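Support case: user asked for a sample of complex input and structure output to validate their parser. Sending the pair below.
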Amino acid sequence: MTVERIDFFFSYRSPYSYLAAPRAFALADRFTVDVVYRGVLPMAMRGQAVPRAKRLHTVRDVAREAKRLGMPFGRMYDPIGDGAWRCLLVGEYALDVGRERQFVLESSRGIWSEAIDVADDRGLRTVCGRAGLGWPECSAALGDSTLRARVEANTTALVDLGHWGVPVLRLGDELFWGQDRIEDVERSLLAAGLGRA
Amino acid sequence: MSPRGRVVKRVVPRIVIAESQFDAPARIGASARRHLNRRGRVELYFAFDDPCSAVALLDLDERLRDRRVDLATFPVIARGIAGDPAIDRKRDYALVDARRLFARRGIALARSASVTPESTAFLAHWVAAAAPGPASRRFCVEAMQTLWLTDDDPVDRGRYAELWRDAVETAPDDASGQDAVARNEKRMRRRGGYETPAAWVHGQLYFAHDRLEQIGERLDDLGWTVAR
């Protein structure tokens, strides 16, 4: 059986990534695809300006969309800076031990709906525990330069693909930007006959 | 974490959300409007050079037809993030995205490459300077159809002048268009919009091409349902 690969470019600072994550990972349950997590640095930490109007509109729009999707949202703690970096590093460790899906879902839910400060050990430890990850290993990942290099490579890969924001899903040569384009990915997967029986 | 950091990262976003969910003034306004037998209104801020604006305009034109709701068209030229380094990539991706969005409705995009804002600026000037209403809206729809669903040639001003005469039955006004477009751009920013297509629906702003269903739901919720 052919198993296609979907690269899922994700940022812990992007509320749209949070909205996309459950459905993006679930593609692997419904189609013969591997969904490969690719954590990237937030736009604002890559030197890209995010104007006030965009920030305000994003928060308002995500609040409406979260309600529509039945996802909790609103009690947030912006992880920009250390919080984003720490999640990215633990995310790489989680990928190595096959628990990236659990970590992404738990940490983003904590950030965007429980106001968990992931820049703080207590906050990060909470979401790591919920994802089934041991704190000593996660704590070690925070100082691992190999993992840091992988995050930087993911960020460069996104830019090299010609994209700027997240979430982005890559299926073959096709790129899909936005939590509201997952249905187009599904359409492509169905057209390719990759639905699970 | 400093107190200031805590306020910026935790308190401010929650205030923004709480404020956005305070919908009572818009609801009261909409209710009063319906009781006075007035029509609902969707303001669409769009750009002729933006294929996603074509998706939104053509869809809303159909979607609102069976509701007592007016579609007010506000063409703009300046849009997006000032100094955005990804502007060309966004322009190219918009074409890919619009192709997929039209495909959801079984419509094929004819244009194979993006068009520049300069090449379609005259369309925005004409529409912005004209009296708003059904004739102007009809021209917008026909121009967008021609631009994105029929043509793959360079933008030909003469062709659109013919469409204008058929729809509006007057000569297009170039002279006052620039100021009128600037007013539309200012109005879009006042509504909180920064990119097209943006739809303002009685107190709520939407990315119009992404949220077409939600715009319909908002109108249902405010009582401007589809006529049976």
